[in-house]
Design brief:
The complex is a heterotrimer of chains A (518), B (292) and C (318). With 292 residues, chain B is mainly alpha-helical. Chain B is 70% helix and 0% strand. Chain B has one domain: MetI-like fold (Orthogonal Bundle). With 318 residues, chain C is mainly α. The chains are: A alpha/beta (518), B mainly alpha (292), C mainly alpha (318). Chains B and C meet through helix 1, helix 2, helix 4, helix 5 and helix 6 of B and helix 1, helix 4, helix 5, helix 6 and helix 7 of C. Chain B: Keywords: Cell membrane, Membrane, Transmembrane, Transmembrane helix, Transport.
Chain lengths: 518, 292, 318
Amino acid sequence: MKRVLALFLAIAFAVIAGGCGNSGEQGAMLTEDPNEVPSDTYEINWYLMGTPQEDISSVEMAINDYLKDKINATVKIHAMDAAQYEQKMNTMIQAGEYFDIAFAARWMLDYFGNSEAGAYFPMGDYFDKYMPESSKQMDPDQLESIRVSDGKVYGLPVHKEYAGQIGWIYRKDIADKYGINMADYKTVESLKPVLETIKANEPDMQYPIDWDNDSAPRILVEQESNIFRNGMYSNLEVVNYMDTPEFKKACEVARDFYESGLVKKDVLTTHDTIQRMKEGKCFCMLSPLKPGKVEELFKNTNYEFAQQEITAARVDYMPGAASMQVISATSKNPARCMRFLELLNTDPVLMNLVIYGIEGKHYNKIDENTVQIKQGTTYDFSANAWAVGNNFIVYLTDKDDPQKHEKLKELNDNAERLVSNLFMFDDKGDNEMIQIQTELDVINSRYMAQATTGALDPGPILEQWKEEWKAAGGEKYIEEMSKQYEEFLKKYPEKVQETIEREKELYNIESKDDSLTE
Amino acid sequence: MHKNIKLETFLHAFFLVLCACSIIPLLLVISVSLTSESGIVSKGYTLLPSELSTNAYEYIFKNGNSVARAYGVTIINTITGAGISTLLTALFAYGLSKKDFRWRKIFTFYVFFTMLFNGGTVAWYIVCTKWLNLSNTIWAMILPYLMNAWNIIILRTFFSTTIPDGIIESAKLDGAGEFRIFFQLVLPISLPGIATIALFQTLAYWNDWWLPLLFITEPKLYNLQFILQNMMNNIQKMSENSNYALSTGAMDVPSESARMALCIIATGPILFVYPFFQKYFIQGLTVGAIKG
Amino acid sequence: MKKEAQKKPIGYKKLSLGLKNDMPILIMMLPGAVLILLFSYLPMFGIIIPFKDINMRDGILGSPWCGLQNFEFLFRTEDAWLITRNTIGYNVIFIIIGTFLNVSIAIMMSLFSSKRASKIYQTIIIMPYFLSYVIVSYLVFAFLSMDNGFLNKTILPMLGIEPINWYTVPEQWPWILCVVNFWKWTGYSSVVYLAAIAGIDVQLYEAAEIDGANKWKQIIHITLPSLKLLIVIQTILSIGKILNSDFGLFYQVPMNSGALYSTTSTINTYVYNKMISGGAKTLGMSSAAAFYQSVVGFVLVLLANMIVNKVDPDSALF
């Protein structure tokens, strides 16, 4: 009896001790005057996605010196590679662990789900007060696209290009050697003979093309046809993307390449595409492109790389949700964090400190907006500038196209905008729907790599996938989404008409549902 | 005792096969670590190097700045962790083994219950990070493993069966305090038990990748196993400054063999530890693992 | 344990006296007790998480209760059955075959007339026990890699079999994991049994020898009965942990490959994978799985112990 009693006491104690929830201090901190330098110093714990850099401490010190007279804050930067970042941050969020600012997106740290669950701070409510400039430089569509179902905005999109193209990144020297013009190859399958030639003649390139889950042939389908990236919509109709012939075809192409020995055998379990490219083991890879992408990815390599776009430019689905900075609900001083983000996105000095480190130590300045990164530098975060802040105030390197920023802006302005870009499924707080959605996400992410990398025969995988998808309530989900999408389209009759016209022209397909346009 | 030749021959044959099975995987990895990159490309991983090369080891010594640091972290963790842990476990187990200790039953149950029931990883993580603030400290890789119920019970059993009550009684009569009795009498005669626990804990700390996976994001605090785990997918992780260090040339980077070489480097020391403990290990387990 | 029951339990009046006598011991135990409290007892508050509809704004305590909803969601998924089946299935195999292997190897080792031979063999077969699962996953990879693996490049071609992409074929993994598990643990576990055999009174064997019993009879009539206690205890403990799995084995060795989940995911890896990939919304389900594991495991160990208590009270744990 005593033991049982002791046990209950122990558990009761644990429960009580464990129960200390979040404290509601945040409200009080939000009175800070945005124009005054606060008297107390606050340390901002900032989690970034990107390869950790060796000399981070001296850069932090420089940032702290710089911030002292501006917002009296210090930063502690925690940088992690994508896989580790995802694991660590999800764990932190689940545990309600304290952090201040983090990188999040539609595809990373479940921006929408976690916002609804209250993991992030609703910074949108304070844009006017603390972040007037950085929020206004966005395209309004960008902010609109990250509005969560409760009507609030929980993140600040990274100001950069929000449109994209798909294309090749390839070894220019090899292409020249064999007289290959990559622009001629608009599909993955058309490249097969070229790769076979290279495989036969270049002993270093046993596997001339490489991909992993994010660069498998399917990404071309997502961009080229009217199917969108999160796998659920067509442009005017909601379908299960994984069940479309285009998707199936892409899986089969991947399988064919795999079986022909054109892509490495361990493609499912290893993710070293860029590394293999750098080491000269591959000829090309498929990748989402923007002006200057190659220069960002392949700095200081021994080989000459180039990029070739093969699709038209399109504004991203949810153009603001691709890359954001969010403030944690556990932050002890969200006001200071917002002021920091405001500064980061408007002040080139601060932004470039974070990206390139310290002038003279990590890079030299060539002219006002151009830098040269030092050989063997111990700090260079530029490969991940797209996940940090305002890209238009980041200095260019001597290897970049001097017109890069203008080209990025052009890309934004000229890319086509699809009507479905702003549609977002609303679970309406229905626990069952939330559950279905979560389950589908799990199932989709489990099967995606298996089906699309070619390591497995896609036929049975797709079957199994579909079965599980159905069992998890996929059809119900699509049905509900169709309903909402129909409602959504009614708000934009002209855009719908436009889309139908363009689709007829582009893809020669019948318009699917005229009733929508009235 | 007369020798049974047939039986002995069979036993030797059987154990030779068993031993071969035990070490072949390790031999395979050693061989890969000594094979040149081109050898691997043409012949795959083989039990004997198809083209001998020490390139991988040279490469690690030249570029593995983070490997060296991780080695340091692992050694610090192992020494402090195993040291403190063995001491605290022994102190605790000694109390449980004393028959005249009134709280004995309560404390035994206190330990035993933790073997039966736990609150889940998430809650445990919350305790470690939110209340104890262990994230990104060296203590995150030391504290959680210090007390282990199984070790306590083994050592308790060891104490209660090997220490004669008479010795303690007579020492008490001589006016020795509990601490003196523990350090001057109990510890020396319990060496096998202590050594067993020390070995368990040395292994636990040396081989740990779970705690850094959960609590460490600061590259300076990564330990060996964690770096190895990260490298499984990508050799890049070996050098912090990956953008520059590795992009030297196609076959210059022995990425296949270097991973395996690092495995060997990370495993080596722990394999040499066992012979030192072996003398005590069997004896320690003999008494400890059997219920008292 | 029963003898010291004569000692009076701590009563109200005796408390001060008891404290005074026991103080040095209590001080000795204090650091350990605090650590156990912190790392084992405090986290027990986690048992309430699955009953809450967690939202991060209000924290764990502040979030509303939601009854058994999380369990409903969990058991509606196919995963729940899959991970239960895998966890229990592997454990049953490990317990049955493992015990057999460990005991027989220990007995064989005890038969060597030369202690040196037995010691050398012991040192070698215990080696895998010293390797971390990260290292083990590399060793396994060296065998199974599609591009360069020893099996695919050397063994299978010799046998004229097509290479197999091991990390994508779930059907192969039950035996791979069993082999890896026995490879890693048999050496160590048999040493535990060997230690028990070494503890058997030598006079018993000498007497048997005089009576003319051969080795086999000695094993049946002396060694095995002496090991009974240890075998029973080990088995009860294993049954109590039947819903737990060796996380390293199931997470590191298959490299957490999604293609293999149908035969490699266990409750532990499921909970962890939910924790690292789901964010705030999967907390309910993963903690429901953890709760299920902990509570059912607890009940199982009590049951196992109760049965043993009925059959053979001396062998019971408590």
